[in-house]
From TrEMBL, chains A, B:
PANTHER family: HTH-TYPE TRANSCRIPTIONAL REGULATOR RUTR (PTHR30055), HTH-TYPE TRANSCRIPTIONAL REGULATOR RV1816 (PTHR30055:SF243). Signal peptide: none annotated. InterPro entries: Homeodomain-like_sf, HTH-type_TetR-like_transc_reg, HTH_TetR, MT1864/Rv1816-like_C, Tet_transcr_reg_TetR-rel_C_sf. This is Unannotated protein. Residues 10-70 form the HTH tetR-type domain. Keywords: DNA-binding, Transcription, Transcription regulation. It holds the Pfam family TetR_C_33. GO terms for molecular function: DNA-binding transcription factor activity; transcription cis-regulatory region binding.
Length: 228, 228
DNA sequence: TCAGTAATGTGAGCACTGCTCTCGTAGTTG
DNA sequence: CAACTACGAGAGCAGTGCTCACATTACTGA
């Protein structure tokens, strides 16, 4: 059963992934080299294909792990707060997002950066990708249930409410149009700010982007989303 | 002066760039192959190095062109509006941003996607990169001058106003803390939303992301930024 | 227990990549 | 017209992902 091979396989697999992450961090996903991994491990490059069908498969596995990592990080941050402390939960979630992104910049790039054209995200990635999303959705539901109202209204554009109706169905939630718009706006602002910071678009403007990010998330939570 | 060579050089250079963009669009920046470009042009691969010092140099040149392209697109959209029509200008700018991104997805990815670690953006890219930013900054300045006030206040976090003071100096602008925060929030939300859409993170949620984007930008402009 | 099977590692090899170097040719310029 | 320089060709180097035939070695069922 749990013989020598099964154990060795696990170890080899995770060692490959570890070295792959190292390479991606130092030289970028584009320059990930299976041969170099094999060299570092002292084995023939062809042996790697016993563990991963291709370079793309290895990358996909790393992406799934990263989704799970950010998912559990955000879940933990949210779980630490009292359920009624909505503003505190929003703060915890947004801070944990940025912290995770800064700690694992190459993983963030892997997930939220430029995708490879034609790379169809395998279905295996969908569930892990939903974990961090669900934390926000649950928070929004709790906000709505607590009677908080976002400080905004939805412009009466034809098609918008139909689109939001569809979103409710697809995501299995029951949020008002205002809440959906406000939630997506906050979500987009957080990730936009993190991407700007991580991808080097505000280097010349800020010296302490964290201070701005904190102000941003406070503003989004308390004022736009109306959390108390 | 303007001999046969000078003319041929311009033509060859732009033909290389054209084919490069084609390749990036179909196979991604990571899979851009100089040899394939040479093959398609019917010339030796080594000849390409008379025009671009390296693959990276070619990519850098493409990035600069893209910055200029998005910059002029946004400038044109803004210029079409009456100066006093602040809400109209915001709408025009944000719509032109998304339209450009959707029309040129690979260029958007090149600029706003995952950067290559260690790739130091050459100084040549700074000026073109500021063009689209400046359109927003001028709009924010006009909004402030018109007496509009964003519907938000800046949380009194220590360090934030110091940071915004620095931003004022670095960008050569004179906006209030509220306006800076609101402007950056709106900016981040727009790009966050575009990135989510383009990089395939809302595929399963929306069928017409444009409707949501319009609602988002209207909300950001009229309510968060307080444009009239 | 022991033969058969399946998992694992090897090394050669194919077709590709970016890039360099030498060498000949053909525009340009004093 | 001679000297110079820009340009293109082709060979070659070191690297890549991936495949395949071939050993070896751990597991497994009779």
């Amino acid at each position: 059963m749990t013989g020598i091979r099964a154990k060795a396989r696990l170890e080899t697999t995770s060692e490959i992934k570890r070295l792959a992450r190292e390479q991606i961090a130092s030289k970028g996903a584009a320059n990930l080299s299976l041969r170099e991994i094999a060299r570092e491990m002292g084995m023939a490059s062809s042996a790697l294909y016993r563990y991963f069908a291709s370079r793309d498969q290895l990358l996909t596995d790393l992406i799934i792990e990263s989704y799970d990592d950010i998912g559990s990080t955000v879940e933990r941050a949210d779980a630490k707060c009292s359920r009624e402390d909505l503003a505190g939960r929003w703060r915890a979630v947004s801070q944990s997002l940025r912290t995770w992104a800064i700690t694992n910049p190459s993983d963030y790039g892997l997930i939220f950066g430029t995708p490879v054209p034609g790379y169809e995200a395998p279905t295996d990635t969908i569930a892990p990708a939903l974990r961090y999303t669900n934390v926000l959705l649950r928070l929004l539901a709790d906000v709505q249930a607590a009677g908080c109202r976002p400080l905004i209204t939805v412009p009466t554009t034809k098609g918008v409410s139909r689109e939001y109706k569809r979103a409710r169905a697809n995501l299995g939630i029951n949020l008002t149009d205002e809440m959906i718009l406000a939630g997506l706006a906050g979500w987009a602002a957080l990730f936009g700010a993190i991407s700007f910071e991580l991808f080097g678009h505000v280097d010349t403007v800020f010296t302490d982007p964290g201070a701005h990010f904190l102000a941003l998330s406070e503003m989004l939570g308390s004022q736009m989303l109306g959390m108390k």
